Amino acid sequence: MRRLRRGVLWLPMMILWAMFLVPLPAEGTAAAAVLRVPQDHPTIQAAVDAAAPGDTVLVSPGTYVELIDFLGKEITVESTDGPATTIIDGNQAGTVVTINAGADQTPVLRGFTVRNGSGETGIFTQNGPALIEGNRVTGNSICSGAIQAAFSAATIRNNVISGNHPNCSGGVGGGGIAVRGAGTVTVADNLITDNSSSFDGGGIALFAAGTPVISNNVISNNSAASFGAGGGISMFNLSDALITNNIIVGNTAGQGGGIYWLVPSGDRGPIVMNNTIADNGGSAVIADGFDVAARLVNNILLSSGAQATLHCGDFNDPNPPVIEHNDVVNTGGGPRYGGLCTDRTGLDGNISADPAFAAPAAGDYHITPGSPAVDAGRNAGAPTTDIDGDPRPLDGNGDGIPVVDLGADELSARDTVPPTITCAATPATLSPANHRLRPVHVDLSAGDDSGTVTVTLTSVTSSQPDSGLGRGDVPNDIQGWTTGADDRDGLLRAERFGTARGYTLTYLAADPAGNTATCRTTVTVP
User: Fold this and answer.
1) Inter-residue contact 245 to 271 (CB < 8 Å)
2) What is the 3-class SS of 451-470, one letter each residue?
3) Nearest residue to 259 via CA among 267, 269, 250, 248
4) What is the C-alpha to C-alpha distance for residues 367 and 417, in angstroms, rounded to an integer?
C-alpha cells in the first residue's frame, strides 16, 4: 500500500515539475504573425489595426479603396503579386499611406500601386528608417512629393514614380519625391518620370534635407513651374546631398532644367559625381549660393540652347564650386559655362566633346566605344559601380590602367568571344535511294558566356540539282525547313544521280555582342 501511494504521488509531482521546466516565451518575443487580406481581414487598414510589431500584412490582388496608416507600428505591408494587380486607391480623400517610424523601427511598404492620393502627398513617412520599395506611385494630386519623407532616415528604392501632378501653388515642391527636414534619406534605383510640380523640383525636391543620398535613379521628363527651379532636382537650405550615378534627362524648369541648388552660408552643398545630365530644358546645372565647397566631378553635362550648360550664380558668394573631370557640351551654339563659372575646358580634367551616347532619342544614354568619356574621370571618391551595377573603374581604352568613365555609365569591356555550337543530323545517311522524303532531325547545342545565344538555320543545300537527271527522280527534294529560324526538323529526299548526294545544313549562333559561330552537318545519300 505504501508503494502504491508513493507511485500515485510521483506522477503528479512529475507533472508539477514539468510545468516549471517548460520554457515560457520571453516578454516581447512573441512569434510574428501573417495577417492576410482579404482572407483574414476585409481591408488593409483592418489588418494593420490588428497587427503587432513584427507582423506582416500580406495583401492579395485587388483594388483597395482606402487610406492606410501604419499607426506607428513596425510592420511589413506587402502584396503577394506586385503592383500590377494590387492597388491602394485613395479616392482623392487624402494621403494614401502614412508611415510614422521610431528611430529604431523599419516599417516596410512593398509591392503596391498607390494612386489617387490628394492633399500634401501620396505616401508620407517621417523619423525612422522606413523602407518604401517596389511600388508604383502614380496619378496622385499632391502639393509636395508623391512620396514625402520628413526628418527621416527612410530608404525609397526600386519604385516607379510617374504621372503625379500638383494641387497647390506652394509647398516645398517635388513632383515625384520631396525630402524635407534634416535627415539621412536614401533615394535609389527609382524611375522618376513625367511628374510635375507647381514650384521647384519636378522630379525631386530637397528642402533643408540634411545629408540625403540620391543614386542610380533615372529622372526623366519631369517639370517644375516656369518660375521654379530644378526640373530634375532642386536643393535649398541645408541639403548636403550626395548625388551619384543618376541619368537626369528631358526635364524642364524656369531655372536649371537638370539640377538647381542654392547653398546657404556655412554649409558644404552637394557632391554631384558621375551623373549623366543631358537634354534638359535650359541649363544642365545651375549652381548658386555659398557653394565653394560643393563639387561637380566626373559628370556629363549636355545642353542645347542659348543658356549656359553649367551656370554659376553670384548670390552673395563670388566663388564657384569645385569643377573637375566633367564633359560640358552645348550642342546648340550657346555657351558651355556662364556666370561665375569661366570656361574650364582643358583645365582640371574638364573636356568638351560629344559623349557619343548610344541612342539618346530612344532614351539610351549609355556611352559607346570611342566615347571621350571613357577613362576620362577621377577614381578618387567615384562610386564602385555604375547605374547598371557594372564595376568601376574598368580599363575602357585598353591602355592597361582602369580609370572611371564620366557619367552614370561605365563602358563594359566588349565581348569578343564567340559562342560555341555543335550540330549533328539524324539520320546521317538516307538509304536506299528510293526517291522518298525522309524526316531528318538535327541535334544541336549552343552556349555563350553571356548566358544568351540565338540560333538560326541559314541554309539547306544539295550537292546535286533538284529533281536530278535520273529515271524516277522527283522534284522538291528539300521540304519543311524554315531558314532564318531555329528550325531543326524537316524532310530530305533519298535521291541521287550517279554519284552520292550530300545535303548540307548550316546553322549560325550569335551572342548579344554580335559574335557568331557556324556549324554545318551533312546528310548523305550513298
Assistant:
1) no
2) CCCEEEEEEEEECCCCCCCC
3) 248
4) 21
How many CB atoms are located within 10 Å of the residue 478 CB? 17
Q: By C-alpha distance, which of 134, 126, 137 is closest to 76? A: 134
Alpha-carbon distance 302 to 162, whole Å? 24
Which three three-digit cell numbers place residue 462?
544539295
Contact call for residues 120 and 95 (beta carbons, < 8 A):
yes
Given the C-alpha cell 497587427, which residue does it identify?
51
> Which is nearest to 246 in space by CA: 210, 310, 299?
299
Mean pLDDT of 127-133: 98
For 11, the 3-state DSSP assignment is helix
Residue 175 CA from chain centroid, whole number: 19
> Is the pTM of the predicted complex or chain greater than 0.70?
yes
Of 90, 112, 100, whose CA–CA distance to 69 is shortest? 100
* Paired strand residues for 126: 100, 150
pLDDT beyond 60 at 297: yes
What is the average pLDDT score of the chain? 92
**17 Cβ contact partners less than 8 Å away, ≥ 6 residues apart:** none
C-alpha–C-alpha distance, residues 204 and 193, integer Å = 10
* Look-up of cell digits 510640380: 197
Half-sphere exposure of 503 (CA within 13 A, CB side): 30
pLDDT in tens, 6-28: 232 323 333 333 333 334 444 44
In sequence order, what are the residues at sequence separation of 6 or more whose Cβ sits closer than 8 angstroms to the Cβ of residue 466?
475, 476, 477, 478
Q: Which residues pair with 395 in a beta bridge?
A: none
3-class DSSP string for 313-370: CCCCCCCCCEEECCEEEECCCCCCEEECCCCCCCCCCCECCCCCEEEHHHCEEEECCC
